[in-house]
Amino acid sequence: MADSSLRAVGWARSLPISSGVKAARDWTRSHIEDLEWSRSAPDTVDSVLLTVSELVTNTHIHARSTAQLVLAWDGECLHVTVHDNSPQMPRPRESDEEATGGRGLLLIDALADTWQAHECPRGKDVTACFRPDISGR
Asked: In this record, what's one Pfam family (predicted)?
């Protein structure tokens, strides 16, 4: 007999470089609304949207590739995955206070509960996981 208590929800979207990061944020926000976090976990929503912006920007700028954005909610954690065609794994960069970039991975590290990168046959996946803070803090 199958376990009927397990319920996963997922969405996927391809974002070519021409689509821009705003399209990724808007699309993500519309699906997070299905989880009803806007009132119960607004800080988590902000963290997810900022992370999506960073990951899609990195894909478009550094990998020069279409971003494959996947959101998967497993009942405990929202997994935000962005796939690109570059085999180069992400790594934090040293940046001085005057630099206009180079802080994206540090930001994701601060916002997400966890994040990791995996090599794939045609590129890599970067996944950040978020557990909603529904305490209202």
From this structure: HATPase_c_2
Total-model pTM = 0.86
**pLDDT surpassing 70 at residue 4:** no
User: Which residues make Cβ contacts (< 8 Å) with residue 13, sequence separation at least 6?
Assistant: 24, 27, 68, 69
- Nearest Cα to 84, choosing from 48, 114, 54, 122? 122
Residue 97: burial class (beta carbons within 10 Å; 0-12, 13-18, 19+): exposed
List, in order of start, the domains of the chain with CATH numbers.
9-91+101-130 (3.30.565.10)
Tokens of 59: 């894909």
Contact assessment for residue 74 and residue 127, using Cβ atoms and an 8 Å cutoff: no
| Confidence check: pLDDT of 106 > 60 | yes
Residue 69: name the closest of 48, 55, 58, 90 by CA. Answer: 55
> What is the rounded (10 degree) CA torsion for 25, 118, 132, 72?
70
